[in-house]
Amino acid sequence: MSISHIIFDCDGVLVNSEPLSARADSELFAQFGVRMDETEFRRHFMGRTFEAMVEELTATRGAAFPENIVALKNQKLTELYRSELQLVRGVRDALETIKGLGLSMSVASNSPRELVKLALQVTGLLPFFRDQITTYEDVPNGKPEPDIYLLAAKRSGSTAEDCLAVEDSITGVKAAVDAGCWTLGFTGTHDEGHAHGLKLRELGAEALFSKMMDLPALVATFVHEG
User: How many Cα atoms within 13 Å fall on the side-chain side of residue 67?
Assistant: First the structure.
């Protein structure tokens, strides 16, 4: 087994955007009578598309949202990204080292393409990936379905079986594993890292790590095995 391409989730893996997204969700939905704190939003909806969140809250809480609810969320998050978004600690050095292994890299995300691109721009990571960004907007079904990973692999010129995915969420790991990717579970940005990691392992993650400094060594084992 030897991989030729590595596919990164964005939120919670490359950038520490989950707290900002949860804050935006909590503030926005409160305007329409749905009150959940940021921790609840992260626990219930981590890794899922915003549209899926709206659908569930409409069905389970009878909430009525305006047609432009997605645009309102994206506007809030754009403002937060520009003012507060931070890299996941150690990710730049990890990407530099992985680049030295000769692997191509891309991003596969359940967030809108423009937000992903903005996140990579404001944190200085875009040169590592250029335009190699695949999102739920490009496929019939977002994560946890495997569509995003299958397309990302195809765009890289590889099969999913030749790709290594780096994910932090249950939905993301399920999508990557079901696509056939080798998958690593990152727990460093999760509130309950150990317990969350056990769930990721149950879903098929090959290994877990909580510090980005440990990622290059893990990646290297997939490059040289086989």
Answer: 0
d(CA 35, CA 27): 8
Is the pLDDT at 225 greater than 60, yes or no?
A: no
Mean pLDDT across the stretch 211-221? 96
| Contact (CB, 8 A) for 182 and 165 | yes
pTM of the model as a whole: 0.87
Decide which of 159 and 51 is more confident.
159
Q: How confident is the model at residue 28 (pLDDT cuts 50, 70, 90)?
A: confident
d(CA 80, CA 194): 29
Q: Which residue is associated with the tokens 């978004």? A: 85
Tell me the angle at which helices 18-30 and 38-45 cross, rounded to the nearest 10 degrees.
110
Beta carbons within 8 Å of 22's beta carbon, 6+ residues apart: 38, 39, 41, 42
Sign of CA dihedral 46, 214, 80, 118: negative
Residue 12: predicted pLDDT: 94
Residues 6+ positions from 177 with CB-CB distance below 8 Å = 183, 203, 204, 205
